[in-house]
C-alpha cells in the first residue's frame, strides 16, 4: 500500500533534520581527523632531531599553550580594557596599575636571576607558577568583565606581569634541554616558532569566543593556562638540575657565592649585545601602550580602531615570523653587527613614522619592531653561546631576559606618559630616545669585543672572565 501522505511537511522536515545531522556529524568527524593529524604532525616536528629525547619537545608544547593563552587574553582585552572605557580614564587607570604592579616587578627584577640561581632545583615549579597565576587571574578577569568590576585593571596588569616573569623563567630552562649538537640559537628559534603556531591556531578560536562575549575568550585562556601549568610541571627533571652551574653577575669581578658556586662577570661582547637589545625591546613596550591609545583617540584615514590595531599588531607578528625565517635561512651572521643594525633600524623607522604618520608607516613600524626585536635576541643568544661557558649559560639567560623585560616596562611607561595629540610628537620622542640610546651603546661598546675569544671546552678562555671595559 502506498503512503497516503507522501508530501507531508512533517516528513520533509524530519528528512531535512536527519540530513543536517548527518552533515554536522560528518563535518565534526572531518574536523576531528584534521585536528588529530595537525597535532600529530606538530608533535612529530617538535620531537625531531633529538628534541624528543632531550625533553625540549615538552617545553615547545608548553610554550605553544602559553602563547595561545596570551593571544586569547589580548583579543579579549582589546574589546574591554581599551574600548569600553573613556580614553583619559583608561590611560589613567592603566598608568596607575602599571605603576602598582610593574614598578614592584622592576624593583625586584634584579633579584629574579639570583633567586633562580639559588633555587634552581625548583625551575619547573617557578614556570608552572607563572602559568597558574595567569589561569587564576583570567578566571577573575572573566568575572570582572561580565560585572564591570573594579578588579578589571589590576587583574589585567597582573596577567602581564606573570607573562613577563614567565619569559625569565623559561629562558633559564632552555639550556638544560638542548639535544646533542643543538645550538641555543636553534633551540630558541624552535621555541619562538612554536609560539607563532600557538598564536595562529588560538587567535581565531579566541576571536570566535569573543563574539559571544569577551569573558568567554578569557575562560578559554583559563583552560589553556591550566594545561600549560600541567605541562610545566611535567617538564623533564633535568630542568631542575644545577650540577656544575655557575652564576653570572653584571657588576663586580669573579668570586665564589653561596654553596661554593663561582660567580663570573659578564663578558664584554655579551654586555654590548645586551645593551643593544634593550632598544628594540623598549620600542616594543612603547608601541604596545602608546599605539593602543593613539589609534583609539586618533584613528587614521577613517579606519576603525579595531582594524588599525589588528594591522599594527599583525605587522609586528609578521616581523617576528620573518625574523625566525631569516635566522633559520642565514647561516652566518655577525652578531655584533646585527644588534647594531637592528637598533639603528628601529630608531630610523620610528623617525620615519613620526615624519610621515599614516597607516602604511604605522604598519611598517610594527613590522620593523617585530623583526628587529627577534633578530637582536637571536644575536644575543649567539653571543652568549660563543662567549659564555655552558656552566654559566643558564644564569646568563635568566639575567639577560630579566633586563630585557625591564626595558619593555620602561617603554610601556613612556608610552602611557606621552600626549596623544599630535601623534607625531610621541613617535618623535621615541625616535629621539632610540637615537640617543644608539649613540650610548656605540660609545660604550667594549673595545675588546672584536678580539674576545670564544670559550674553550674547559671554560677557561679569556672571553668568560672579561669584564665590560
Unreliable stretches? 254-260, 448-453, 455-469
Number of helices: 15
Helix content: over 70%
Q: What's the end-to-end separation, in Å? A: 103 Å
Order of helices and strands: HHHHHHHHEEEHHHHHHH
Query: What is Rg?
Result: 25 Å
Strand order of the largest sheet: 1-3-2
Descriptive tags:
469 residues; 2% strand; 3-stranded mixed sheet; disordered C terminus; globular; mainly alpha; 3 strands
What does this 3D model show about the protein?
It is a single chain. The chain is built from 15 helices and 3 strands. The protein has 469 residues and is an all-alpha fold. It has a 3-stranded mixed sheet with strand order 1-3-2. The longest helix has 38 residues. It is globular. It starts with 8 loop residues before the first helix and ends with a helix. The relative contact order is 0.12. The C terminus is likely disordered.
Amino acid at each position: 500500500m502506498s503512503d497516503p501522505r507522501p508530501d507531508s511537511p512533517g516528513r520533509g522536515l524530519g528528512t531535512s533534520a536527519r540530513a543536517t545531522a548527518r552533515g554536522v556529524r560528518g563535518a565534526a568527524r572531518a574536523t576531528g581527523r584534521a585536528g588529530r593529524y595537525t597535532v600529530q604532525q606538530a608533535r612529530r616536528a617538535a620531537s625531531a632531531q633529538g628534541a624528543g629525547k632531550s625533553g625540549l619537545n615538552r617545553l615547545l608544547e608548553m610554550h605553544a599553550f602559553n602563547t595561545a593563552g596570551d593571544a586569547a587574553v589580548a583579543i579579549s582585552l582589546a574589546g574591554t580594557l581599551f574600548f569600553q572605557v573613556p580614553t583619559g580614564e583608561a590611560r589613567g587607570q592603566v598608568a596607575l596599575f602599571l605603576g602598582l604592579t610593574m614598578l614592584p616587578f622592576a624593583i625586584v627584577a634584579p633579584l629574579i636571576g639570583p633567586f633562580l640561581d639559588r633555587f634552581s632545583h625548583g625551575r619547573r615549579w617557578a614556570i608552572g607558577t607563572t602559568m597558574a597565576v595567569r589561569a587564576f587571574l583570567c578566571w577573575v578577569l572573566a568575572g570582572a568583565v561580565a560585572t564591570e568590576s573594579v578588579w578589571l585593571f589590576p587583574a589585567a596588569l597582573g596577567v602581564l606581569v606573570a607573562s613577563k616573569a614567565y619569559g625569565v623563567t623559561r629562558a633559564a630552562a632552555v639550556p638544560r634541554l638542548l639535544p646533542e649538537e643543538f645550538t641555543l640559537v636553534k633551540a630558541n628559534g624552535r621555541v619562538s616558532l612554536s609560539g607563532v603556531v600557538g598564536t595562529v591556531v588560538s587567535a581565531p578560536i579566541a576571536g570566535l569566543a569573543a563574539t559571544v562575549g569577551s569573558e568567554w575568550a578569557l575562560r578559554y585562556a583559563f583552560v589553556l593556562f591550566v594545561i600549560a601549568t600541567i605541562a610545566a610541571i611535567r617538564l623533564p627533571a633535568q630542568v631542575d638540575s644545577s650540577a656544575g652551574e655557575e652564576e653570572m653577575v653584571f657588576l663586580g669581578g669573579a668570586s665564589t657565592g653561596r654553596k661554593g658556586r663561582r660567580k663570573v662577570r659578564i663578558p664584554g661582547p655579551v654586555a654590548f649585545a645586551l645593551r643593544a637589545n634593550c632598544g628594540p625591546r623598549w620600542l616594543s613596550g612603547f608601541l604596545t601602550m602608546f599605539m593602543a591609545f593613539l589609534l583609539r583617540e586618533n584613528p587614521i584615514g577613517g579606519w576603525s580602531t579595531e582594524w588599525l590595531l589588528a594591522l599594527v599588531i599583525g605587522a609586528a607578528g609578521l616581523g617576528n615570523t620573518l625574523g625566525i625565517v631569516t635566522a633559520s635561512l642565514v647561516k652566518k651572521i655577525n652578531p655584533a653587527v646585527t644588534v647594531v643594525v637592528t637598533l639603528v633600524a628601529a630608531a630610523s623607522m620610528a623617525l620615519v613614522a613620526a615624519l610621515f604618520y599614516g597607516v602604511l608607516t604605522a604598519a611598517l613600524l610594527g613590522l620593523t619592531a617585530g623583526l628587529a626585536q627577534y633578530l637582536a635576541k637571536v644575536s644575543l643568544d649567539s653571543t652568549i653561546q660563543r662567549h659564555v661557558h655552558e656552566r654559566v649559560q643558564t644564569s646568563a639567560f635568566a639575567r639577560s631576559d630579566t633586563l630585557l623585560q625591564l626595558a619593555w616596562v620602561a617603554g610601556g611607561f613612556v608610552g602611557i606618559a606621552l600626549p596623544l595629540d599630535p601623534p607625531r610628537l610621541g613617535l618623535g620622542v621615541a625616535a629621539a630616545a632610540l637615537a640617543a640610546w644608539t649613540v650610548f651603546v656605540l660609545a660604550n661598546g667594549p673595545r675588546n669585543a672584536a678580539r674576545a675569544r670564544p670559550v674553550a671546552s674547559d671554560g677557561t678562555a679569556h672571553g668568560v672572565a672579561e669584564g665590560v671595559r
